[in-house]
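Researcher: For the record, we're logging two predictions in this thread. I'll number them. Prediction 1 follows.
Model: Prediction 1, sequence and structure:
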Amino acid sequence: MKSLFISFLVVSSVAAAPLSAAGCGGNFTTFLSTLTLELQAEGLSDSQAKAFLHGARIDPEVLKADRAQGVFRLDFDDFARRVISRNRLETGAYQAVKQGPLLQDIEQNYGVSRGVLLAFWGLETDFGQVQGTYKTRDALLTLAHDCRRPQLFLPQVMAAAKLYARGDFDPLRTRGAWAGEIGQVQMLPRDILENGVDGDGDGHVDLKGSAADALTSAARLLRHLGWQPNAPWLQEVTLPDDLDWARTGLDHPAPISEWVARGVVPRDGVLDPALSAAVILPMGRKGPAFLAYPNFEVLFEWNKSFVYVTTAAYFATRLEGAPVFEAGHPDPGLSKAQIKILQEKLSARGADVGTVDGILGRKTRAAVQGAQSALGLPADAWPTVGLLNRL
């Protein structure tokens, strides 16, 4: 089964990356010639730079994939039930045993829970089985040449070239996701260059062939992104009917002691009053509810989709023994077309919804909550037809 996630972009490592003088668009041969000089300026020899770029081409399938990320328009319930299959749960349990000593070492050295690593490993590539078929070098060059996000992909081209120069990347044979992620946990070249770990001790960082390298590198990347060692990330809770819904959402964290005082109780486990968390309602006040701890926020540096991050975090809790979430009876959500209309209306009111794309992402949810509050509606950040009509 083809993984649904190998193509969703990791953007954590390039926020401050400089633009390449190679620019974007225009003649591809000229683009490569300029890039050859830049690679030499980055420390590659003339022969290395030319060998890295030899035979490079634009891949039209990459551009097509870049413009069609429809899976992230599903709601949390549909998305989670689609991707957290019995097979993935069983394989995750099997790998937890098989990789037990490795996962224990990772937890001791990096403080990243095995459930989180197993969840990303499973969702990204079905535990290494589906790593992508796009030629990574050409995918990165295609997206760097394309003028939509060159500032994101040009640094990844440079990083891939440096991996090639040290013997950890083959420009002709390395394949992965359309957006350039490589290996069993789908990391971008710059993340591999900066956070890759030789977990099996063979002298190379091989995220494609070595589970030890992949899982250890993922843990190191999460720590680099701000993961708090040995701390929780997500916990399902039951909420009182009279909770102030405007206090929910990722932008409204509070001490656990305050949530307990407001009547929030865990469905499984206990709550630590020394911690802080936000209450998130992926499908509104009538659907499942979770406490999102600071480590949950770190996962947005791995992937920007609210639905993906919530699903991965929940999957990680399932792999560590949590029960199936209580689905509740949420109000029907909006279609892609309706969400685009909603985003346009919210934007016209001065709200920041990000891109008008029909995806109910984090910014759109916050804008929905603001509009609900202004209109005197329960401010649970879940848009309905009723809210759309009011707007």
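Researcher: Logged. Prediction 2.
Model: Prediction 2, sequence and structure:
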Amino acid sequence: MFLLNTLPAHNKPLIPVDAETLGESAAETVERFLEHRANHAETPLHSLPALAAALGVASIHVKDEGHRLGLGSFKALGGAYAVIRLLLEEAGEKLGRAVDVSELQSPEVRAVARTMTVACATDGNHGRSVAQGAELVGARAAIFVHPGVSDERVAAIARFGADMIRVDGTYDESVREAARIAEARGWTIVSDTSLPGYERIPGLVMQGYTALVREALRKMPEPPTHVFIQCGVGGIAAAVAGHLAIVLGDERPIFAVVDPARAACIFETARAGHPVTIAHGEPTIMAMLECYEPSLVAWRVLSRVADAFMTIDEEDAVSVMRQLADPAAGDPAIVAGESGGVGLAGLMKAASDPAIKAALRIDGQSRIFLVNTEGATDPGKYEEIVGRSPAAVAAKNAMGAEA
């Protein structure tokens, strides 16, 4: 399915709070905070010239978040950043002065952290980031997971010392249960989806994602003309689209949001013209994107700066995982999890459909920007789908680089 943005808000400026959240100054703050994170390093920006030639575009660049902060997902940038911000604000109130991120490990700030419990619901990656952030600052974390979260992903979160709480039902039901228990126990919800009256913390999570855009723009020879990016509740898409719109202004790229067909809450919201909750149906293999209710803040941004909305099918996600693992000659291999290559799947669908290609003005001069939002966060499932382990794919790529 494909839909151009014809909403009244399209191409209107972001409202001031969203422009401040996703602007250059905020992104600079995120990068400064990253300097205080263990294992911080800029993630790779891969060029795929052979695939670009095959699709008839000038270039394709993929920001590979499978290498981010040892967590294997772009979500490492958001949840932990929000936890750090919230701690520093709480410490500032308790100590009666402004507290800088450089004081994160001071005894006074650690003492405040020990009084805090942060909580969230997750499909896997966001919860891992919140748990890592809590461990970093010395706070407690309670992470709520639904039955679709694999045991391997649960274990990856638990290793940061988080209390794991199982919830029957969908991701959205786990979000509501986390909010209910957190309110009763005085915990702080650090969610990546916003609800009426709950916008600031999801905004901080989105703000964390702007770092990957700044890193990519520094490395690309020219800014992109097109962006295809996957969408769950909308946070990553809104962060990338909003930041690029602010930084590039009238030269901003054409932005296409890509949903799984089985969990297309942003697509259906765009079709309806207002936020809608869609029915829970057959699960999608794109587990990190299996969301049925959009984030209100994310939608507010996307309604203005997204140009098109589209969906891909299950087989598209599988196919692109395999293609990235075994690329055209000369292109690097990329380990992409079930949700990681969805933006590329959207590009490939658009490039092969003359009507969509024309609507998005894709041609031989187009410069495409994509984000591999996750690596093999469930290595067993990755090997089952791709036929090789993540390590084998990475090793092949390393051997190719040495040749």
